[in-house]
Every structure is written in C-alpha cells, then in structure tokens.
Amino acid sequence: MQALTLPRRDSATTINAQQRFSFDGSPEQVPGPKRYRAAWISDMHLGTHGCNATALLDFLRETDFDTLYIVGDLIDIWSLRRAIYWPQQHNDVIQKILRKARKGARVVYIPGNHDELVTSFCGVYGNIEITERAVHVTACGERILIIHGHELDAVVQNVKWLAFAGDLGYQFLLSLNPLINFIRRRFGLGYWSLSAYAKRRVKDAVSFIGKFEAAVAYYAERYHVDAVLCGHIHSAAIREFGRVAYYNCGDWVESCTALVEGDDGMISLVNYHSLSVTDRATAPAVDSPRSKQTLVSN
C-alpha cells in the first residue's frame, strides 16, 4: 500500500510542498489492520463491471477508522437502470461497511450524481448518516468541506443528457480494457487502461479537470472552510489554490485510491490497486505550495 502523506498546513502560513512517489510496498505486506482517524472513499460504482470490488474489500479489511466518509457514487443507479449486475463481491462491500458501523465506526454517506436517489433518505440511522455535504475538522483544526463534486460540474448540473452520454462512452472504454490487456499479457506487457489514457490525452477532458479543481476556491469561501474534498472526476489529487487546499480521493474503478487522516492530522493518499506493483502507473513528481509531502510504503 502506498501513502502520499500530507502534513496539515498551518492556517496562518503557507509552506512549500513537494510530492515524491515510490512503489516498494504492496497491500499483502501489511501485517494487520491499520487504524486512521478518518478515511474517504468515492466513486465505487457498485453495480457495474468496472468496479474493482477486490481492491476495495482489501482496503476495508486492512483498514480501521473512527469515521468513514463515502463521498458519493457508492452504487451506480444509472447503470443498474440499464441492466442489473450485482455479484457477490459487491454485496460483500455493503456488508463490510455495515459491519464497520456496527463495530462503532461512524459512517457518513454523501450521495453523488450516480446515486442521487439516496438524497431522499438524508438523516441519521444509528452510526450511519446520509447527508448532502459535511464538514470534517482534522486533528490539527483544519476545516474540510466534503462534497461529491458534481455540484462543480456544469455538464451534470445543466446538460444531464450529455452527462449520461459521457457515462456510456466511459463504460464502453472500460469494457475494452480486459480484451486489450489480455492481448498485452500474451506479449509480456503490463496493465494499461484505454479509458485512463483517453482521459489524460483528450484536451477537453484535461481542461475540464483543471476548471473543476479551480472551482473549489468558490465553495471554500462560501462555506468558510480551509479545504474542499470531493471525488466525481476519478482523478486523485492533493493540491492548493491560493490558500485553499483541494483533496480528491479518486475512485475504485481504475486508480483504487483513498484519503486517510492519521491521529497527527496528516492526510495521506493511499493506492490500493489489486494489480501487481510493477503494473501500477508511475506518477511524476509535482511541486505545489503546501507543507512537504512524502510517499511512505507500508
């Protein structure tokens, strides 16, 4: 398991930041459950063939937390409307989350655009809370607004038919990945994702992600917080825009990432992909104006 560790920025100062990446560890090397103060997962898309339930179950089994934030798109109702797909592993994910809640973990479920019907059931159910947004206060006092992120997406908000069409296109590209990688394995090549490649290369997609991330500053000011955390765009990140921190916990379709907070207030980006370490895509070093970030292997 890899963790991109981000010590909290002091609200009164701006400190330089640097990301470094290493891929020396794997989930199998973790001797037992690791406990965190809080964890954030998003875009599981249960009910689709693209959901990597194996990696998600590994994360849930090997991680304990005081609070688990499910940041939207837990269940892909859009996909289930087209065709029913619900294997046992997807049921196991739901059962594992419920078991965490029964054992005392607080679970906060913030519905996204693919499971927006759940917003009709906002309320508190034992240790499980369903709400449209939440504010988390870290151990260091940093206030983080948590939303799914479709609120920042003009296409989802204003042109829903285009959002549905885009989802169909993305699901089609995902469906090609197994065939492509079967052929690549025959030639001794590692895993490669066509859908992820297309998302990185298409200029409009790159421009959209940039505008999406920059829009968090408005929400931070609106809700009087130090940071905004979301999912939605399937692109994990820890960045800063001016004095506003931006966190994205990624997805469990391709990247298989989550954000976690330790007792010291450090927020880390962990990668729990079920593929072998050598098959993981390497990430470039990035400089940003935040406190020093390092990647630790467990």
- Kindly estimate the percentage of residues that lie in beta strands according to DSSP: 15-25%
N-to-C terminal Cα separation, in Å?
6 Å
Give the SSE string.
Answer: EEEHEHHEEEEEHHHHHEEEEEEE
Number of helices: 8
Radius of gyration (CA) equals: 18 Å
- Total domains: 1
| Overall form | globular
CATH homologous superfamily heading: Metallo-dependent phosphatases
Q: Which fold does the CATH topology refer to?
A: Purple Acid Phosphatase, chain A, domain 2
Structural key phrases:
8 helices, disordered C terminus, alpha/beta, Purple Acid Phosphatase, chain A, domain 2, globular, nine-stranded mixed sheet, five-stranded mixed sheet, 298 residues
3D structure, described in words:
There is one protein chain. A hairpin with a 2-residue loop joins β6 and β7. α1 runs parallel beside α3. Strands 6-7-5-4-3-13-14-1-16 form a 9-stranded mixed sheet, covered by helices on one side. The protein has a 5-stranded mixed sheet with strand order 8-9-10-12-11, covered by helices on one side. It has a two-stranded antiparallel ribbon with strand order 2-15. The chain has one domain: Metallo-dependent phosphatases (Purple Acid Phosphatase, chain A, domain 2), CATH 3.60.21. The protein is an alpha/beta fold and 298 residues long.
